[in-house]
């Protein structure tokens, strides 16, 4: 299936994956390397109150997906965005030219999340999410398979390689007409 015409001069990239896989680090470094806009959805939700309150069990805001999409619509039409979020199934398919799913070995992820203070069911559910590749499956069911790319993100070298790979992809990207 051919990609839909966008009219954008620059592509948009979604960087997704389980918490702790390096989404924000990768997105920030990629933004620095390409001068693309880095949009951290968690930060945006807090800054603009795009939520429906707080979830005590998961210890996070209950994101209002409609408000987030309304907030991003004009920016996404312009292109040149790197969107960083642990979910992906509510964003319009037309927004993204590449969907990157970062993946981390469970032993590495466990240590990263423990160091962030994740405990109990929050820690367990995130590790299980990675084991069962929930976000990769979500991406594959929400976007064209040819734009979904899983990338290993276990260490600094992996992140550096991923930034180089994605920067090269951006340079070679051609808009569809």
From TrEMBL:
It catalyses: ATP + H2O = ADP + phosphate + H(+); AMP + ATP = 2 ADP. Gene3D superfamilies: P-loop containing nucleotide triphosphate hydrolases. One of its GO terms (biological process) is ribosomal small subunit biogenesis. The keyword Nucleotide-binding applies. It comes from Papaver nudicaule (Iceland poppy). The lineage of its organism: Eukaryota, Viridiplantae, Streptophyta, Embryophyta, Tracheophyta. Residues 115-125 are annotated as: LID. It comes from the Eukaryota. It is found in: Cytoplasm; Nucleus. This is Adenylate kinase isoenzyme 6 homolog.
